[in-house]
């Protein structure tokens, strides 16, 4: 049996994965804080019929070898943390991170997650939460008497508000911090614009915005997706063509086997 049949079949599977990854990137082109994924490939094992540099005569070595590969495999997806586009919303509860870092949030079960999505809201207790209702780990609570329009989130993460009737006195409500990781590409995507720390990402390092290399905060802005539609469309076309070429290789292998069968007859 021709090994090229299996090699081409593996190639088609790899292109299917590339198509799936590209489709996910395109589907999230308008998702707040979304970071595109890049699919990494590696070639598979080789059958070495002749090692490069083999001595073929006295004092003479072969300049090349004879090795036949067995296909390709996907080795992983890498999150690309380039900045997304910034959109001015005018909403005082929208906060974008300009630079590195993640907001730290708590799930109802007490587990910690991280996000770049700064579209915050107030719950029925006046606490800052994500659009999914998850509490910010900083535990910011807006007191009664402070209008959302009088809420100020500084570049350094300080949160303050002005009580109605006391325009001259600001009330300190808390401090937002940002988490950094030694290897952010090692974070696990959990859906819902959330990431989870893994042994590959390393432990979180919390800092105030603007300190120790973390980004600063921009109130009234949201960070959009960093997906570039043109780039993804090129990837889509590339995957489609590669899939087609691999299928043609299978067809060619089938025709070769058919020719062999005809000789036997």
From TrEMBL:
SUPFAM superfamilies assigned to the protein according to its UniProt record, in alphabetical order: Flagellar hook protein flgE
Matches recorded under PANTHER family: FLAGELLAR BASAL-BODY ROD PROTEIN FLGG, FLAGELLAR PROTEIN
Domain annotation Flagellar hook protein FlgE/F/G-like D1: ranges: 96-160
Compartments in which it is found: Bacterial flagellum basal body
InterPro entries: Flag_bb_rod_N, Flagellar_FlgE/F/G, Flg_bb/hook_C_dom, FlgE/F/G-like, FlgF, FlgG_G_neg, LlgE_F_G-like_D1
Gene: flgG_2
Record GO cellular component, one term: bacterial-type flagellum basal body, distal rod
Keyword annotations of the record: Bacterial flagellum, Cell projection, Cilium, Flagellum
Domain called Flagellar basal-body/hook protein C-terminal: residue spans: 218-262
Residues annotated as domain Flagellar basal body rod protein N-terminal: 5-35
GO biological process, one term: bacterial-type flagellum-dependent swarming motility
Family membership: Belongs to the flagella basal body rod proteins family.
Record's protein name: Flagellar basal-body rod protein FlgG
A Pfam family reported for this protein in Swiss-Prot or TrEMBL: LlgE_F_G_D1
Keyword Metal-binding: no
